[in-house]
Amino acid sequence: MSSFWPSGIELKNIQSPIEILKEAQRDWDSNSDGILNLVLNTIKVEGINGLLIEMRIIVDIKHIPSNRTATVFTVLHRQNSPYPVSIILEEEELPDILRKSYTVSGRKGIETVLESVRGTKETITVNNEWVADTPLEFRENLQKVFNRSYLKSMVTNLISGHLPDEEEPNGSTAEELHGEG
Amino acid sequence: MPRIVFWNVHRKDLTPMVCALARSTKADVIVLNENDVPSKQTLSALRQEVDTRFFKPECMSEKRFYCFCRDESLGLSEVHYSSRSSFRELKIGSTRSLLALIHGIDVRNNDPATRQSFAQTLSAEIRIRMEEQSATGVILLGDFNMNPFDAGMNQAAGFNAMMTRSCVSLGKRRHIEEDYDFYYNPMWSLFGDNSSGPPGTVHDLTGQGPYGWSMLDQVLIHHSLVNFFKNVEILTQAENYNLMNKQGRPDKSKASDHFPILVTLGEKENE
Hey, which end of chain B has fewer CB within 10 Å, N or C? Predict the structure, then answer.
């Protein structure tokens, strides 16, 4: 194969996000002995001007004996264009204290004030680790999501059906500390 | 007649006021949002101060909503949850419906397009849950972080929530080759100076509130359940506790920055 070929693209393995998710679905079905099911619900979300802009696949875990479900993440891509594809985690709502790792902005307090006084703004590149350009990257991201601790906790809560009595509230999320209405 | 109180308590311990609200409204269901008080503590207070029948319906998550009930016949077990919603079975008489507790994404950190997209996603999710649970209809209750006139609340692909009962009598409307169920939004009747209570549930003159008052806390009734709906009111008093300040706004120093709302349903249609 020529060295000009883009890396990460294997012609034998071109699958859409939904095809890869269906593979994950089969895997969950066989590994849980049919007790847990991955449910994939595809919805369309319109833009403000009424044009269709994105497709969302809501991924739920279903506890079949009780019919209880929980949304674990959402997959998002443009209509008629399955890549790039992004995964939106439900975990994002967790307060930092409950996350095994998280990152914070480098600029805080007086630095942001000085920046506005100077009229300068340093550009910062934000990397979204959950965006995949190829099926291979999406497959890798999906494997990472299924191994996140929040998802494992959700599975446990779903099967047990109730919270233990001693469970305490999670406390404020970062967003709420900034004054949620 | 099921009576449901919803209150965003602004992450404060307002347990004595919650108990006073439960007593003064004779609430069957209390839902607290943005709450930091452990449910065990609130439940214990409700049992001691109000009614020993209060219990915490089965739930898988308490990230957003704390729900307490004193009438087992209403159900209220959680059947689905996501980061911003909790779906509970709700038995009104012989009708099996759902109560969806909603906490919309906030105004300060999300632009109108993002909030509109949230409304559409959640609305699609509601259709999925109704089908999954074979429910007749659904009642949406919560802090939507949108006003009844915001696009996400009334667009067909959003919550599709209309101003009057007669507006929803057709049941659904068609938009880009798809049918969307109507919801009745009774909060429209509570706006402004000519309503019997305060003009809204939140008052803010900063960037969040270009109208002064906003009606962020709302109840939406699926068209199939409209005949079970009796009334909604904004509460400003809980026995001796005044929840509003001298200007008639939510007293966030002593209580919350939101007023609670009380929803009354009938056990039979047109009761």
Answer: C
Distances (CA, A) of B16 to A95, A124, B12, B72, B269: 27, 47, 11, 24, 35
> What confidence tens digit (pLDDT) does each residue in B4-45 have?
999 999 999 999 999 999 999 999 999 999 999 999 999 999
Are A68 and B78 within 8 A, CB to CB? Answer: yes
ipTM of the complex: 0.83
Which structure tokens are listed for A62?
């279903």
Q: Which residues, in sequence order, are bridge partners of residue A73?
A: A59, A89
Mean local confidence (pLDDT), A86-99: 69
Q: Where are the domains of chain A?
A: 13-93+129-157
B198: three-class secondary structure by DSSP: coil
What amino acid occupies position B160?
Answer: N
Whether the Cβ atoms of residue B184 and residue B223 lie closer than 8 Å to each other: yes
3-state secondary structure of A137: helix
Q: Which residue out of A51, A68, A165 would a mutagenesis test of the B interface target, given it has the greatest number of B Cβ atoms within 10 Å?
A: A68
Kindly report the CATH number that applies to the domain delimited by B3-265: 3.60.10.10
To the nearest whole angstrom, how far is the Cα of A159 from the nearest Cα of chain B? 9
Phi, psi of B25 (to 5 degrees): -95, -10
Chain B residue at shortest CA distance from A73: B82
> How many angstroms separate the CA atoms of B58 and A113, rounded?
48
